[in-house]
């Protein structure tokens, strides 16, 4: 049997590689997806996003549903950029944002499947936060 030097390199062990790979995968997804979905709030190519907005939102915020979706789109693009630049902060921003989406969907009383999917994404955003270095310079 070969020595343990086969399993390690001078700078890091192979055991640390999966964590780094998971971090890079999650950071990439949570950068790209919010930006794409945020931009789509302006085009509605992927979905009619206003159907996912609880009607009470337009009563609380006296704006048309599409205008609220424009604001949502801007927040999502900013969240994606935040994940790219400061993954530790950005991942928490995305997690809180997803919690808001889940609450909105539960109040809507439908799209429970989407709420469950978004819960899975929220957990993944929290995992990204745990994998993120304390300083963005280390990312």
Structure write-up:
With about 140 residues, the protein is mainly α. It has one domain. The protein is built from five helices and no strands. Helix 1 runs antiparallel to helix 3 (about 65-85), helix 3 runs antiparallel to helix 4 (about 85-110) and helix 4 (about 85-110) runs antiparallel to helix 5. The protein is elongated and about 50 Å long. The two termini are about 35 Å apart. The model has no long low-confidence stretch (mean pLDDT about 90).
* Secondary structural class: mainly alpha
Low-confidence stretches: none
- Portion of residues in beta strands equals under 5%
Estimate the mean pLDDT confidence: 89
Gyration radius, rounded: 19 Å
Give the terminus-to-terminus CA distance: 36 Å
Structurally, the number of domains stands at 1
**β-strand number:** 0
Query: SSE order in H/E notation?
Result: HHHHH
The quaternary state of the protein chains shown equals: single chain
Task: Write a brief structural summary.
The protein is 67% helix and 0% strand. It has 139 residues and is an all-alpha fold.
List keywords for this structure.
139 residues; mainly alpha; single chain
Topology:
Layout: H1 16-40, H2 56-60, H3 65-85, H4 87-108, H5 112-131
Helix pairs in contact: 1-3, 1-5, 3-4, 4-5
